[in-house]
Fold:
Amino acid sequence: MTTRANAPSVSVLARRWLGENATFYLFAAPFAALTIVMGLWPIALSIQTSFTESYTALSPQPTYVGFANYIEVFGDPVFTKSAWLTLRYTVLAVVLNLVIALFYAMFLSSVLLSRGAWIFKLCCFLPVVTPDVAGYIVWKWMYSGDFGAVNAALTALGLPEFGGVSQVSTVTLAILIAEMWYHVGFYVVIFLANFAMLDRTLDEAAHLDKAGFWRKFTRVTLPQLRPAITINSIYALIQFLKTFTVVVVITKGGPGTATNFVSYYAYRQFDQAQYGTATAMATILFSVIMVLAFALYWYNQRRDWR
Amino acid sequence: MSRDTALRIAAYGLAIAVSAFFVFPYLWMISASFKSTEAILTEPLQLIPDSLSFKAYRDIAVMSGVGLGTYVWNSLWITLASTVITLLSTGFGAYALYRAPKLPGFGLLRVGFLLVIMYPYMLLVMPVYLVMFKLGLLGTVTGIILFLSVGPIQFFLFEQFFRSIPREVIEAARMDRASETRILFRVVAPMARPVVVTVTLITILLNWAQWFPILVISRSTDTYTLPVALLSLNSELGVNFQGIMALATLTTLPVILVYLATQKYVIEGMISGAVKG
Structure:
């Protein structure tokens, strides 16, 4: 094996490898540092804290209590109620937002609005890019009984007053509307992008077959919209499961506990230095979101293969 | 023909009504910030007030002992600094991960990053309080800027762009024995203008709107930005309604202007970032 002698030595190879790749490590270093320090570390800390006694969480040697925080959280009736409220709200919000977004996108991409549709798209996307705090504060005051625009408009139209965010019976609807106002434009625009890619020849074929609107919609349009439906449902699910800002700004969990969703409840616990239970709730919510997102993704992938 | 015209008119009517639903709160907000208290109570729906009142803007000149200028400055500085850091870290990071995905550690970094962006943001903010506490950055603008610099969709926008560069372009430069730094700055960077503009705009909009991490990391109102100041003004007792609307207007209007001027970039960027992520 004389050729071996001519081959570069290991140290030369290592130096060359480093010379070629040091640049890439250098490029990735700030990104890696931020991801680790501001992302992975807090996640790890959160999980770690969920296994410790709350009042020792900030000390150098926290007391580990195993699953005690989790057991406490699951035994807490306020949390159980909060979890159900969150689930119910999420289902309502996802269905409402996606159905409305789908039909509005279909409407905006119809031939009837061949000119100027971009202005309508611009309008519905506007709330998505503006600060949510400001938007929700405006909604809070629009729902106000004394001089809010909502009841003034209803009264002007001769309709009964809307209880808004001050009554348990109407608060869910009130924040559903405010949140839809803020988020739905995003889903509309995703659907619109998908509509622009539809195969128009299928439409014509359906037309020649004298298929009715509903049949055409379910057999021709919907199957082609699967990419947008997948993306939107995953996004909406994650979005509404962690509903937070609207609660902080408008309802503070009330009236009573009517909008005390898990993320808000966890935050309140954290604010009261209940670090152990707060991070346990966070970990539970995170697990639920992960499982649901993956299940949804997997379900849509599987249907694609058929 | 006439049936077609009628349908068209109805369609435009409906589209305008729906658009009004999205735009009305902004008009109502701006209008209320210039109204007198009597005008608000008597004509809550009137969008153009009979007389303009600037009292609300004078009222919010100083809030909880801190001048409005401080909040504006914090908003501008925190948004600008975190945008620059996000742009550089995700831009270079995505480039490295795209060019050398098999380098030891890079696969792990990608998985770690995916985990971070999938973690619900507001739940991430709470333990960040603990991190800032341990780093001694609690209550500092530096801490706020660093946390805001972890961008969710910017990485994907950059990665998507790098993947769109023809392989031959980079291979040709490698054949010429150009260094990796040279390839990035002389070959790739000149093509990257559109993606840099898109990412910059989206990051500015996202970071300007941030409030929760800023509230959690802050120890006093000195490091509040406009949305956080707005939130704290809103939860004060004895509310000053017009003042709140005036501050909401100041918080929102700059963003609306940026959005209207650059809408194509913003909408398309947000969509492709979402589709990719």
About this structure: Chain B has a mean pLDDT of 88.
